[in-house]
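Reopening closed ticket. The problem is back. First fold of the pair:
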Amino acid sequence: MHVLSRKAYLVLLAGDISILYVSVWVTLLLRHVSVPSLENAVVHLTSFSILFIIWFVVYFIAGLYGRYTVLFRKQLPNILFAAQAVNITIAALYFFLIPFFEITPKTVLIIYLFVSTTLLYFWRVHMYPHILVRREIGSVLVGTGLELTKLTEEVNRDPLYPLEFRAIIHPELSSDEETKRTLRLLINSGSVSTIVADMSNHSLDTLMKFIYDITFVDRVAEFIDVRRLYQEIFERIPLSLIDERWVLRYMSLKQHNIYFVFKRTIDILLALILGIFSLLLYPFIILAIKLESKGPIFYSTQRIGVGGEKFTFVKFRSMTGTDVGQQVLKTMHSVTRTGRILRRTRLDELPQLWSVLKGEMSFVGPRPELPALVDEYRKNIPHYNLRHLVKPGLTGWAQIKHDNHSHGEVDVNATTEKLSYDLYYIKERSLWLDFHIAALTLKTILFKRGS
């Protein structure tokens, strides 16, 4: 079962496509104050069709096809307007720089911006949320813990999830017979059709035979593993619910051999291309750094890479000085004005392209940590070493999804949460996920302020 159903995304996509085409016709109607001729409409629709392919890439990067909890919140208008502004700029370059089309719209583009943005906003905010059938799956959660509490609150808070928890059973507070009786009553009443529980929880071992019978023998209910549901909704691994059996099952690297070959090939090609072109920027970056403050051009330190091995991590210096020694966890230096720009645009990380080329890093993967931090986290966070099963990356799932960064200081709580995102990436890693992370990183650079 997919909580965020494919049907919902298809409906959303179909609506967006329809609006883009309808907006062309409405724009021509407003521009000429009359019904557009068939010939004029066909010419515009044909020309715009190629453009729409590029536009949908922008929509994807901007996050308009993210999870429901992102789409229907207060930031939707800002995301939509920013994406439309970028798309109109692309459209202007598209029509005026490519001498292939029979039209060079000027006023039409301005009108189209307002028409399409208005219709898209109305569709996504006022129409789409009411089209799909909601709350069609009544469920009961069997288990306890902070992460399960968060899961319940998230699902029941957002009506766009088809799942709703209508009861919670704490197995440690009641006997097996009481739990079975409660489950049977809930199912027979018709209010619950799905049981959500942790299959690896040994305290539920005696209940599994009962759940199996009502699911596959009596066929009166469905079963969902709570870890799978948690992962799909929060896009991270619930650390309190994993154990050695989970690690052995999902952290195997052999099944990803073909993926690693393709990924390494892409890393080499991109690092070569971007690395060579980035050399054109080096003189300007070096000059800006030297003009603002004294000190070295590059900041070099040791980081922990794949297999727990150390490697040299190089960036353009973005602070007033550099720290000496690998055990410095909290710097006394401040970010310079040039450094702030370099960080915001990620230009300070250009030297790391050569680490990618050497094979010490990848474009996508968990961000490498200082050896001193790794030593602390190994002692205090279970399964922390799992993040070293793959190469560290220039960007990663945790960097995109996790907001509570420790900023170089020891922060066990923040890093534990960050690890849950890193493990999600390692478990689900694929070329598609790598592309998705790269697109979201580009979105972050274009639409958000950096640190």
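Second fold of the pair, where the issue appears:
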Amino acid sequence: MLAYITRRLLYAIPILIGVNLITFALFFIVNTPDNIARMQLGVKNVTPEAIQKWKANHGYDKPLLYNENKNGSEALTETIFYTKSVRLFVFDFGVSDEGRDISHDISQRMWPSLAIAIPSLIVGLLVNISLSMLLAFFRGSYIDVTGVITGVVLISISALFYIIGGQYIMSKLWHLVPISGYTEGVAGFKFLILPVAIAVIGGVGSGTRWYRTIFLEEINKDYVRTARAKGLSELRVLFRHILKNAMIPILTGVVVIIPLLFMGSLLTESFFGIPGLGSYTIDAIHAQDFAIVRAMVFLGSVLYIIGLILTDISYTLVDPRIRLS
């Protein structure tokens, strides 16, 4: 097991380096520090002197990759690549273009994102798997056909419709929950009910159809027919055999959601006024604060790689034969 985990960690290193290099190229070669300064200063204040002053104040006046004016290691460390990209590997995100500590902002804003994402993930999985198993159990019946058609309809509806419709019905008409806002502690529970419910409902269509397909593929395999031939009931076959053997593709689907646990939902947090990492990223894009955007891109890639590694490890728990591959 240790050797398997070590291999997966070693595989992740070049991926993370590649993401970092691509991000650096996009932010500092395609979009040069001069362009960043012009966007921050605005049209009226763009002068060569103002650009140089802004770059010096924000650490963008250094050479990109190699500083010819420095000797020894400083020739590499006194560069934009080292200060703005290499230091990300030790999670030193620096300060935003407005002067705020990005690491402090992330540590504060990750909790509202987790407060929405974790319940949405757990409840969504339980609902999607339960409904898909129900459709698989009644496969070919009117229940199955109705469920499939309903799933297609739900997939076809935009996420904005669920958000705006939920706010209008649950908050404006029925006054059951606040329309937006957030408060820490137990008092904040009422602000999370509607976002979590909308996240679950919005994912029911695609989730149910995905898991239903997985279960139907397992139902047609030889071990299922053997279990039925031994006299096991359909429910016992479904829960004891099919569900267990369908865990690998289920875990693969979960890994896509793991980065969102920390990164937050851009739409949901923005519309509900929740101070999470999703709204933090949106605000940074609107303010053209590339230091924050760059940090969030790197953090998202790290979380996604961690999710892949955790998924690989969970595979070995479901099927120990994978450790030998």
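Update: turned out to be a display glitch only; the data is intact. The chain is about 75% helix and 0% strand. The mean pLDDT is 86. Please close again.
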